[in-house]
Amino acid sequence: MTGALPSVDELLDGAVVVAMPMRVRFRGITEREVLLLRGPAGWGEFGPFPEYGDDEAAHWLHSAIEAAWQGPLPARRSRIPVNATVPAIGPERVPEILARFPGARTAKVKVAEPGQDLDQDLARVRAVREHVPNVRIDANGGWTVDEAVRALAALSADAPLEYAEQPCASVPELVEVRRRLPQVRIAADESIRRAEDPMRVVRAGGADVAVVKVAPLGGVRRLVALAGELSGHGVEVVVSSALDSAVGIATGLAAAAALPELPYACGLGTGGFFTADVATLPGMSDGALDVVDVSPEPAMLDAVRAAPDRVRWWHDRVRRCHSVLAWRGV
Ligand SMILES: O=C(O)CCC(=O)c1ccccc1C(=O)O
Ligand SMILES: [Mg+2]
After folding, report:
1. Which superkingdom, per the lineage (predicted)?
2. Which CATH code for domain 8-71+298-328?
3. Ligand 1 centre from 132 Cα, in Å?
């Protein structure tokens, strides 16, 4: 924060915890819980995944406070190109998924799902290529180096991949895949958003592209600063969601709008994965979303309010993460 850290009482006064049901299983979850904060500049979203520890989750709280107490940076554009996100579903469900992303010319396809094999990935990617010209894949670190080299060669045999996101889990593995397959661009996601030092993967030569997410990086201002540093290393960024509610998506759109360059479609189209959200954003058209201010709709909030024990759990987490931020002096 450039401003003072608000007190816990200020944070929790007006906070709402929601549980948004999902249409498709994603990252192994079928319901997404987040806490929404209300401050003088608007709303902010605090939604670190449940298994994250407090040190990591504190970045997400920093981001929520920044959004609600400081608001966005000046926008350089009003429309953000967005990719379709295709979960690890069977090829027969691809048309139904793509229909939620009207006009998208880029699709990101999840691969390397635990319990699935390369043939399933190939079938899914082939089905997507029938509808969308530009395809990237995301393995969420699920492959070894040898598996990644084999899978990426097979997945790019018919047509190039735009890039391969986090084919392996560790930085040395990404460096090795990049060395062995110089024709496939590698994007780092977890190696940036879950790293102590997000520049490490880039300095090591493990990434051509960086996936940047507002909340894990600690807010729009830090994201824009990191993008500047990355661009000094010749690495371009893709702004993506962390499976955010409409409040978090609006913050992601604001971050994408503030960047000097936006060469890739952003992964901000995940709102359609929820059967209920906290606000209705203008729909995707012609493969893009409008940059808008958003406030939760009271009736929509009421429909997704979390149970009292979950509210207590999230309030305790805010208290602990607030202590982390106070201790760090931010
Ligand atoms: O990038 C996208 O297209 C959507 C966002 C996405 O895939 C995602 C959403 C929540 C958690 C992890 C991820 C991921 O990129 O791995
Ligand atoms: Mg990813």
Report:
1. Bacteria
2. 3.30.390.10
3. 18
